[in-house]
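Zn(2)-C6 fungal-type domain-containing protein, pasting as requested.
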Amino acid sequence: MSHLSLGSVSSPAVSRISQRRPLACRECTRRKVKCDKSVPCSRCRRAGIECTREAVRTTSSVAKHQEEIQFLRSLLSQIGKSSDESAIAGSNAIVQRIAYLELGRDVASQQTGNADFTRDTSSATTVPTPAPTSLSGESHGEEHAKESSVVVNVLENLAWGRSYGGCYPHHRCTCHAHRSFSEMISISTDPATFGGSDLQFSSVKSLEILPSNEVASKLIQFHINHLAWHHNTIHSPTFLEQCEVYFQTGKCPHPLWMALYLSVLSSTIFSVYNSTTYRSTLDLDIDDQASRRLFEAMIDVLYSEDFMKNVSLYTIQAIVLSTEVAHNLGLSGLNATLSSAAIRLAQCMGLHKIEDLPARKVSPKEDWHELLEREMGKRVWCQIMIQDHFAFFFTESYVINPKHFLTALPLNCDDHDLEARDDEIPTVSSYVRTLARLASLMPELLDGLGPLKDRKPLQEQYRHVLESDHQMRQLVGQIPSFLLRAKPDEQAWKPWLGLARQSLAITAADKIIMIHRPFLIASFQTSNYPYTRTTCVSAAVTILRRHHEITIYDDVSIWTHSAFCVTAILVLCLELLYRGSANMAAVPGDADKLHMYHDLINQARESLSKRQGDIMATRGVRLIDTMLSAEQESMWQTNGNNETTTQPSSGVDFRKLVVQFLAQDRESEINFGTDFGLPSAGLDMAEFYGPMDIDFDIWFKNVFGSGSPEGQWGG
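Structure tokens follow.
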């Protein structure tokens, strides 16, 4: 048995390195004539000569199998000098494997000169075969079976006309041969692709709705400096380059990119419109409907470009980012359906199956783009997951099952270098990574209540709610310190940190209420859930206080500020409606608390009523008016002697409240929670995981500090 030498595989004279395999045959290349690239080509057939193609090592193959090839070469050097027949056989197998990894074929076919490779074509029948796995504890048979299963799955997907989403961003597969242009161009971060398409404005109702390039440039730069931290779905340098190309040439990578552009502008205008300070700084001359018009233009672009069919990362980014404004424009239902579409589009692209690559130094241009594209996929998927899991209480369901995706959290890194940093170092990804950890509790919270058609007994449900409360507090306690308390040195180079701290405090308090939402109404109707009642009331007080501080500081508006303010208003109004109920014993200081609740609600009403272009704020005002009116009817009644008393009503007529609210706003999206009836017994947290300080105020202040404007903004 002949012993194949390693040199026959690796010698540059035999197999040079190239970016792609030659499609033209050797004979046509040597004669410098055009080859039709068929196998064999027509010229060689007519001449009756052998038609061969040069065997080369592609740069992508060398890069993605470099570690395995190095290991195999070191192994071959150890056994290569042995004359033992079994060692020779093993050496031959290793050489064949190296050749396969480098050339995509075995050595025997290379040595015979029969280089009839399968032609690389853009045909939709090209199968995106997965890269061979590294040597591991699995046997070759198991690896082969696994790869075969994947290939069969790919074939079936192609037969159905669907893409197999398991190899994003498609640097290590042949997906480019059958995936759409709209998808592949949206993934690419190569500047050479940024000005690839002439933009057709037929999809936009009017060019007049677009701000001038000068104004748009200021808005985009402001968004990157002050708002990108809240969603983290764009790579700022890449997006800025794309915008510059668009401003100078009118061209963009793809028409669907315009949806992303409009989404950024719409959310930015909404965030700064009600801030006198920032409107003056940006010198904006816009009306309160500008954000809505840009949002509607984004929707027009999506549908005119058939976004459901033409899969694109730009579409997903535009939809996810539009959440920053959709709810406040009164389009929560539209946002929900678009978000569901974005989830399925993301799964079609494979954003849920992004696996980490082996660590290696990022220096070649190709490696940088792959790293960047993978990181962008992670960021977008992370935000999709957060929005889906935090929205579960609207439908009592979620779409993304935590067991059915592989994609890890994005790196804690900044855009300029994508270098992972410690969690205690603030980056543009810090806030979203923190929210993702909080959101991860929500599917477990919902599942723990039992199937929707057969809920667990109330005792078990409440036990689970209390355990989820405990887990949430533990996660909040692990939040990076710079998101809890101000550090002046960090504030100087991260101008968004102050607002991020206030926003996170509001969000954390809202999620505590969300966890207790299944028992929110019951906690007011009975005395069995005092912990839920006191916790939710204290969390609501915290939200309204922080919201008032942001308003006084005249800072940027985030959509969650108004939205969670409405939740807090609802909770405090329930406390007022049920304040005299027999299930709550009077304690010293109640009168002062009630006065404080009224003050907070009235402060919130005043600040919400001043907001322009914010339907969520308008509905918050109407909610306050409706519920305070019900409080007056319930608590101040006239007896037969015309004396006023504070006799509590036997219950709150929520149907009447809804009717009154709808009389002012026909499209209410207020969720009053579920009335579970009046169970006979409540539970004590100490029964499950030991004594715990149940005072929300004490716990929250220990974690987030006092919450004074000076302390939070680093002043």
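Note for the archive: Strands lie at 17-18, 57-58, 197-198, 251-252, 637-638, 644-645.
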